[in-house]
């Protein structure tokens, strides 16, 4: 998926079979949905070699879910690139993280932290009482902007930004110094966190206000001019760090 995954499992031994099971959750989705792979089903659809109507049930199911999010966000989140190519990266990575978490739980691990390219899902709590999740500084990618404490029921946090991969998110608002260059969203599940981080990055301040009014989430944003803002819940999470 063009990124790196890591797992932290305190107080437990993780075997090769456990790692293989987690990796399999990502491999299965990448084989179907990755636009980095020429042989994936979604790449064939993008090239016009296969019609969406002829796609597998897995592709149609994820595409339908992405369309539901497009409707719910008023188009701030979309599975379509400006050129019309179907790009499901905005939801597939989160689905893979969720599925990998299921693999860990099924294998008896009740405390873990799964980090995939800065998108994080946790289960249980470490000995410190809360997972300490660093959010990278969008200006200096080698530095940490802040640390957020994650614990039940807040099990996930996702960050979407433009400083590392450039302007890869289609923005629905006019360009200005108040555009967000990075958005972090904490939620009870990784799919909500990941989708809404992308949607707020796209929709800007107006959609951030809509999102926080309609979903149970905590949000931290950084603007192009360097202004940082956060919801009360995110501020409390910062204050709760150990």
Descriptive report:
- The protein has 242 residues and is an alpha+beta fold.
- The chain has a 7-stranded antiparallel β-sheet. Strands 4-5 form a two-stranded antiparallel sheet.
- The chain starts with a strand and ends with a helix.
- Helix 1 packs antiparallel against helix 4.
- A hairpin with a 4-residue loop joins strand 8 and strand 9.
- The chain is built from 6 helices and 9 strands.
- The mean pLDDT is 91.
- The longest helix has 25 residues.
- The protein is 38% helix and 21% strand.
- It holds the Pfam family ApbE.
Summarize the structure.
The chain has 242 residues and is of the alpha+beta class. The chain has a single domain, classed as Roll (T-fold).
Primary descriptors:
6 helices, alpha+beta, 7-stranded antiparallel sheet, two-stranded antiparallel sheet, 242 residues, T-fold
